[in-house]
Each structure stands twice: as C-alpha cells, then as structure tokens.
C-alpha cells in the first residue's frame, strides 16, 4: 500500500485516509471527512465535491493495483447520487473492473461511516499513465 505521506495535499482537505487494499480483487477502502464548508443550502455535500471523493477512491484503486507505477487519466466519469450526503465521516470503496494497456475501467461507491447506506456511485473510463517521479 502506498505511503500515506505520499498522498497529494488535496487529500488533507477531503480528510482522506486509506484503510485497506485487497490486491486479489484490486479493491481499496478509504475514509473521507466531508467538512461543513462542503455543505450546500440543501443540506448535503456539493455534487462536484462528491465526484471528487469518488474520483479519488477509483483512482487510488488503480494506483495501488500497479504498486504506484501508474495513475489513471480520466476520459469519462459517470456518477449517480442516491441521497444527500451529510457532513462528517464517509466510507468509500473503489475497484479496478478491467485494466488494459490503453484503457482502464473503474468503479466507486460512497457510503455512510458504517458502510451500510449507499450515498453515491460512479464509474470511470481512464487511460493508464506513468506516475511522474520526484526529481
């Protein structure tokens, strides 16, 4: 699993934490925290920020599956919101559905902190790209 210190800075804003990665199923489990500043007048997390949580968990699944050698470059993301997402902790699962040389297919789900209520799900089609190394 990638070193948490290597997670990009935006993960601080999202309260990201990698909980586990299963290499056999290429599935990652992450925790996020939706701060109050993410909440709209309707009382739920703003939709673009929900997409950010899902994008991160799907992308991180591919990064972990390639042991940090590749990251996905999204061509398309489709998202379905099932209910308003409240402030506070969230649980997310991301998985690699299929990985080819030219395209990868990813899936993500966002749940309440207990992992029992599904709030949103997404799929992504992406291009596998090498992760740039720090000089």
Briefly summarize what is shown.
InterPro entries: HotDog_dom_sf. The chain is an alpha+beta fold and 135 residues long. The protein is built from two helices and six strands, in the order H-E-E-H-E-E-E-E.
Features:
44% strand; Acyl-coenzyme A thioesterase PaaI-like protein; single chain; 18% helix; Thiol Ester Dehydrase, Chain A; HotDog_dom_sf; 6-stranded antiparallel sheet; 135 residues; alpha+beta
Structural commentary:
- The chain is of the alpha+beta class and 135 residues long.
- The protein has one domain (4-130): Thiol Ester Dehydrase, Chain A.
- The protein has 2 helices and 6 strands, in the order αββαββββ.
- Strands 1-2-4-5-6-3 form a 6-stranded antiparallel β-sheet.
- The longest helix is centred in the middle third of the chain and has 19 residues, at 47-65.
- This is Acyl-coenzyme A thioesterase PaaI-like protein.
- It comes from Novosphingobium kunmingense.
Secondary structure topology:
Blueprint: H1 10-14, E1 17-22, E2 27-34, H2 47-65, E3 70-81, E4 88-99, E5 104-112, E6 118-130
Antiparallel strand pairs: 1-2, 2-4, 3-6, 4-5, 5-6
Low-pLDDT windows of residues: none
Assembly type of the shown chains?
single chain
Largest sheet: spatial strand order: 1-2-4-5-6-3
Structural class by secondary-structure content: alpha+beta
InterPro entries: HotDog_dom_sf (IPR029069)
Protein name: Acyl-coenzyme A thioesterase PaaI-like protein
């Amino acid at each position: 699993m990638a070193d948490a210190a290597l997670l990009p800075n935006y993960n601080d804003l999202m309260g990201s934490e990698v909980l586990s990665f299963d290499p056999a199923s290429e599935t990652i489990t992450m925790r996020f925290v939706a701060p109050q500043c993410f909440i709209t007048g309707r009382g739920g997390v703003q939709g673009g920020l929900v997409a950010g949580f899902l994008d991160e968990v799907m992308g991180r699944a591919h990064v972990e599956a390639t042991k940090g050698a590749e990251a996905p470059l999204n061509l398309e993301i489709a998202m379905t919101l099932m209910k308003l997402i409240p402030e506070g902790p969230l649980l997310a699962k991301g998985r690699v559905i299929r990985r080819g040389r030219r395209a990868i297919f990813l899936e993500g789900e966002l749940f309440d902190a207990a992992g029992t209520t599904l709030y949103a799900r997404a799929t992504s089609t992406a291009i596998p790209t090498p992760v740039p190394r720090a000089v």
